[in-house]
Amino acid sequence: MALQRLLLKKAFGEAKPKSLCCFFSTAPPSLPAFDYEPKPYNGPRADEVFQKRKQFLGPSLFHFYQKPLNIVEGKMQYLYDENGRRYLDAFAGIVTVSAGHCHPDVLNAIFEQSKLLQHATTIYLHHAIADFAEALASKFPGNLKVVYFVNSGSEANELAMLMARLYTGNLEMISLRNGYHGGSSNTMSLTALNTWKYPIPQGEIHHAVNPDPYRGVFGSDAKSYAKDVQDHIDFGTAGKVAGFISETIQGVGGAVELAPGYLKLVYDIVRKAGGVCIADEVQTGFGRTGTHYWGFETQGVIPDIVTMAKGIGNGLPLGAVVTTPEIASVLAQKTQFNTYGGNPVCSAGGLAVLRVIDKEKRQVHSADVGSHLLARLRDLQQRYEIIGDVRGRGLMVGVELVTDRNEKTPAKAETAMLFEKLRELGVLVGKGGLHGNVFRIKPPLCFTKDDADFLVDALDYSMSKL
Ligand code: PMP
User: Fold this and answer.
1) Which of 233, 305, 378, 452 is the most exposed place for a label (fewest CB within 10 A)?
2) What is the pLDDT of residues 323-353, one digit of tens each?
3) 197: exposed, middle or buried (C-beta count within 10 Å: 0-12, 13-18, 19+)?
């Protein structure tokens, strides 16, 4: 080890020996220290849980890893399995945990509210929903001031679509290829990832060419991609568009940032045609991108409707739609009611999440740790041909693996192997993209630079053994 350090020092001067610890890929890296002892676990083991799941739950459920993990406890950016083994959670339960697993402030808010009153619908008054709506609305620019609470991202997008259609009087929607917007019938039709949808009739939905700077047919040329949206409006919808919806960085599709300037051009086109613009912030919101609180701000636009879920509740089943008073007024023509949306427990928890993100300055932290992580991944890309693309912002990062950089041939088998290897080393990342060859790195926002170093060292070590 001393010799290794000496060689490193000779080769690189004093340049961060830690970040180069796996340059020679000798010993596997170890998790950063963390002062927490998980509770003893005496519950059912992985095999038993898996058996029961197969017997009693729908066969469409999928799981990660050849030997599925039985996760029994979580603390901030770490998860513990049935044996008390700690893992770095670089996927945050699919980008759902923002503040950190079991963050004490969020837990406390949930407990205190649960002890008083767990459920009262909006037919009665309760301060929690009003306080939360006020705090959430204050996070938005422009006239985005009216909040609706729902229970999931799919439900938020359903409501957004309903608003767009009622407001414009049109039915046709435009979404992006490679996007994901939910698992309900309508949102599934917006989704343009084949593995996630059924071939059932899905009229009135048009999928525009994805403005993907890495794989897209027009590279980073936002104008050409935007022209495709214009074509859909002119020829597909016969000029009658209700709305355009897109994620501001595609999540399930593999952390794909939209070509710079794309949303500005498209929002203009859609609005000129009488449609409204919806930003799906289910994965990108709440400071994750680092530079901005909302993903749409990275493209310099203000949507007409914003949908959110996941990170808003740090694990609580909670979603929201925020829009303008003008659009909201259309929905007031009939009764709009949601039994659990904005219940006191979720509202108290959601408000606590907003406060934690502010108090702990998580947006700045995401920018700081995210740029460290991206820089280290880009260093790794110099050394491993298999890394075709490193992209993202803040703590919303994608690493795309290819067997040929020119052809961009998806390295599917290698991704699967590395994915298992990372887990063996104690790192849990997500896997996605159209070809299943993208590592999705979207940890809880309390993820540190040491965690980032460990993750990259583990990737380095695993790649050196490929
Ligand atoms: N939109 C996006 C961008 C998502 O990633 C998801 C979930 N992966 C959804 C909507 C649907 O959210 P939910 O699973 O809470 O219905």
Assistant:
1) 378
2) 999 999 999 988 888 999 999 999 999 999 9
3) middle
Q: Please write the tens of the pLDDT for every residue from 180-236.
A: 999 998 999 888 777 777 777 677 899 999 999 999 999 999 999 999 999 999 998
The dihedral through the CA atoms of 395, 76, 92, 32 has a sign that is positive
Determine phi and psi for 160, rounding to 5 degrees: -60, -40
Overall domain count for the chain: 1
Task: Give yes or no for a contact between 193 and 219, defined as CB atoms under 8 angstroms apart.
Answer: no
pLDDT score, position 198:
77
Can you give the CATH number for the domain in which 186 is found?
A: 3.40.640.10
Write out pLDDT tens, residues 12-60.
333 334 444 445 557 999 999 999 999 999 999 999 999 999 999 999 8
Using the structure block, give the residue that is written with the tokens 């403005």: 211
Q: Which helix (H) or strand (E) holds 399?
A: strand 396-404
The response to whether residue 252 sits with its C-beta less than 6 Å from ligand 1 reads yes
User: Rounded CA gap, 397 and 371, in Å?
Assistant: 10
Mutate to test the pocket of ligand 1, among 258, 282, 321 (most ligand atoms within 8 A of CB): 282
What is the span of the domain harbouring residue 350? 105-359
Cα of 280 to ligand 1 centre, how many Å?
Answer: 9
Can you give the C-alpha Rg of the chain in angstroms? 23
Residue nearest to atom 3 of ligand 1 (CA): 282
